[in-house]
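Last lecture ended with a question: if I hand you only a sequence, what can you say about the shape of the protein? Today we answer it with a concrete record. The protein is GNAT family N-acetyltransferase. Below, first the input exactly as provided, then the predicted structure, then a couple of comments.
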Amino acid sequence: MITLKGEHIYLRALEPEDLEFIYDIENDEAIWEVSNTQTPYSRYLIKQYLEHAHKDIYEVKQLRLVISNYEKKTLGLIDIFDFDFKNSRAGIGVLVKNINNRYKGVGSEALKLLVNYCFTHLGLHQLYCNITEDNEVSIKLFTNQGFKKVGLKKDWTKINGKYKNEYLFQLIKK
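The predicted structure:
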């Protein structure tokens, strides 16, 4: 059986009530580096996004899920992006918003649930992620889930006027 429920957290679809949570994330400049965001988002645009979040992954090529605990507290977001049905692959990104909820296995459990969902329910063959060279926490998170470093993109991301290298990690279904 396919499930998006783990021992401590579960993944759920976006709801209109998530507007302020997403607004806070999308407008937090401290995480723009990992989300590849360059400009703030208005509540109006996020409301429109939420109104269309029900669209099928095969149509919009992405899926964003909320990471929640069993006390129904919203902890973060996990994304499938660049969904490529023909080549059976997609990118994955994960963010635990509050630093007090990090380093407690939330991201790891969410990633494990999403990887399982991608391979068993969506029938994907491979997943990938892009991580800047100095993001040791994300590198550890993805490598612990079996992702392998397969490439280095030199001077790939410009942050605060300086270029950073970015690793490409890949997980191929066994």
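Comments.
1. The helical segments are 19-26, 32-35, 43-51, 57-60, 106-120, 136-144.
2. The radius of gyration is 16 Å.
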